[in-house]
């Protein structure tokens, strides 16, 4: 079962222990250590790109052992035994083989640097469960009128970020998906190729294959972010740069796809990606004994969710579709949407109502999931045919958020990935009353930008008591403040030559508060002084109102 948009891909998996019964297939091989490695964390430039190192430095993230590649000595040892390696994972210190026979599987078990082998896909396929996997068209595609893509951006005030010049430029995004059919020839991406915004592409599902001749799911997802045909459809971050990474094999659903995803995410990290969008999710597979249980959707059990949290710990922002199972007997979010450091995105219609298919929370350990919501019912895309179309699924709501998050981070490069994450959450319309359908609701990226600039100015959490912004202001004026206790603040506004114009009290909750001072929008243009007092603390600001 796949993604969230249908075009959505969601996969579900559980760990299968290999005991005495071995069969031909793809195996995950767990290695015991990284001995005999030629790499060291003291020389990270040998295995991490300059961008990856800079991202860590910007966020004070140390280089640790799980950054080291898998030991080349062990890889060469497997090769000498005739055991072909498909993908590796440095974070888990494991490899996935190409199909091997029973004899080779038994040989693996006896190697002193191997602690476990797990069957992740049979060879040949043991069963094809077309009811539970693949790209069942949850999405309908229909021709659309030109210029209809604005609402899916404007509902988040993303157009205001664009108007400020924040369109994703300088942000590197990785789109991990099922294939990018015809994305190399579509007019929607002509600007990407012409401006060298495609950084590269790679296939982790079938290494060496052509990602532009595979499934079209990734093409639709990419178009939500990166399309640029003025008057027809412009994406949420048209000036970002992209790695196109395929991890999902849409023809089947096996545990191996989580391993493929891990390798793709590690590549994105090493290449220096800032944001990952992955419109994929896993719960059920073509082998029933690989299925995840709801109890495993706790953010820290499935392999892909643990890897997603690791990816976030390296400083990347991960955005993931919540799932399309809202009307099925499963109904819950999938992995890695359950991970606490992953922003799981639900789907709404254009009126902001939750879509019927959108997967529900909470996570198995009771956390609010999904995290936020975006339009995923009737979302405008470019299909692999090169024509504009409408689609539905959380697979297309996720890239709406991912692209706007890239623009937000461009505007606040001093912020860490989790500060950007938290600002998006705090800007959402249900922040004070989240639920298990919408999460914290529909984010307002203009407000998120204000939150970041107030809370983390100059890259430092200033632990201020009061702040007023923007200043000068035209319509919207915000008060941000932090308090250790519940309190009241008195706000007094005077004119330039004196005289009280307004005086009122506001309630302060413990922690961080962001208040819209909408009563000041009617003030005439001019210079004012605003005093904020709470207990023995007070601050006075010169306030400029412009037309």
Describe this protein's structure:
- It is a single chain.
- The chain is an alpha/beta fold and 547 residues long.
- Among the domains are: 151-414, Rossmann fold; 463-545, Immunoglobulin-like, CATH 2.60.40.2550.
- The chain is 21% helix and 24% strand.
CATH topology of one domain: Rossmann fold
Work out the number of β strands: 22
Structural class: alpha/beta
Please give the order of strands in the largest beta sheet. Answer: 6-9-5-10-11-12-13
| Mean of pLDDT | 87
CATH class wording of one domain: Alpha Beta
The total of helices stands at: 12
Task: Give the amount of beta strand, in percent.
Answer: 15-25%
Largest sheet: 7 strands, parallel
The shape, in one word, is elongated
Distance between the termini: 53 Å
> Segments where pLDDT lies below 50 for 5+ residues?
1-20, 129-146, 458-464
State the CATH architecture of one domain: 3-Layer(aba) Sandwich
CATH 4th-level superfamily of one domain: Peptidase S8/S53 domain
Helix content: 10-25%
Radius of gyration: 25 Å
């Amino acid at each position: 079962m796949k993604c969230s948009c249908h075009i959505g891909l969601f996969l579900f998996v559980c760990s299968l222990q290999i005991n005495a019964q071995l069969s031909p297939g793809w195996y995950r091989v767990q290695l015991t250590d990284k001995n005999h490695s030629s790499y060291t964390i003291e020389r990270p430039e040998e295995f991490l790109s300059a961008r990856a190192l800079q991202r860590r430095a910007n966020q004070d993230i140390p280089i640790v052992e799980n950054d080291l590649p898998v030991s080349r000595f062990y890889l060469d040892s497997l090769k000498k035994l005739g055991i072909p390696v498909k993908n590796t994972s440095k974070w888990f210190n494991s490899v996935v083989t190409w199909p091997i026979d029973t004899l080779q599987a038994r040989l693996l078990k006896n190697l002193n640097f191997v602690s476990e082998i797990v069957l992740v896909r049979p060879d040949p396929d043991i069963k094809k469960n077309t009811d539970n996997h693949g790209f069942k068209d949850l999405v309908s595609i229909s021709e659309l009128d030109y210029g209809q893509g604005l609402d899916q951006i404007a509902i988040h005030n993303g157009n205001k970020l664009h108007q400020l010049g924040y369109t994703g430029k300088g942000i590197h995004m990785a789109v991990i998906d099922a294939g990018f059919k015809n994305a190399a020839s579509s007019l929607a991406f002509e600007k990407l190729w012409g401006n060298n915004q495609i950084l590269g592409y790679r296939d982790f599902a079938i290494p060496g294959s052509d990602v532009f001749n595979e499934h079209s799911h990734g093409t639709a997802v990419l178009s939500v972010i990166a399309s640029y045909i003025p008057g027809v459809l412009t994406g949420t971050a048209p000036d970002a740069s992209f790695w196109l990474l395929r991890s999902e094999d849409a023809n089947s659903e096996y545990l191996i796809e989580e391993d493929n995803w891990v390798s793709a995410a590690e590549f994105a990290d090493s290449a220096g990606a800032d944001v990952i969008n992955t419109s994929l999710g896993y719960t059920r597979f073509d082998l029933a004994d690989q299925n995840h249980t709801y109890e495993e959707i706790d953010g820290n059990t499935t392999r892909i969710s643990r890897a997603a949290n690791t990816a976030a710990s390296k400083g990347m922002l991960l955005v993931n579709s919540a799932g399309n199972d809202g009307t099925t007997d499963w109904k819950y979010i999938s992995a890695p949407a359950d991970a606490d450091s992953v922003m799981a995105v639900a789907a709404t219609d254009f009126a902001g109502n939750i879509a019927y298919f959108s997967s529900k929370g909470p996570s198995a350990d009771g956390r609010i999931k999904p995290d936020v919501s975006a339009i995923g019912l009737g979302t405008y895309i470019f299909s692999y045919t090169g024509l504009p179309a409408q689609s539905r699924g959380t697979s297309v709501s996720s890239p709406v958020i991912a692209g706007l998050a890239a623009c937000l981070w461009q505007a606040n490069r001093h912020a860490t990935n989790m500060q950007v994450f938290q600002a998006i959450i705090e800007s959402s319309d249900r922040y004070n009353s989240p639920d298990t359908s919408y999460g914290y609701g529909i984010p307002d990226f203009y407000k998120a930008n204000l939150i970041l600039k107030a809370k983390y100015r100059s890259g430092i959490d200033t632990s201020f008591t009061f702040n007023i912004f923007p200043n000068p202001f035209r319509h919207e004026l915000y008060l941000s403040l932090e308090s250790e206790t519940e309190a009241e603040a008195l706000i007094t506004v005077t004119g330039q030559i004196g005289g009280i114009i307004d005086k009122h009290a506001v309630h302060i909750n413990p922690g961080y508060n962001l208040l819209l001072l909408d009563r000041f929008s009617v003030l005439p243009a001019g210079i004012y002084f605003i005093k904020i007092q709470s207990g023995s603390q007070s601050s006075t600001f010169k306030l400029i109102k412009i037309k």
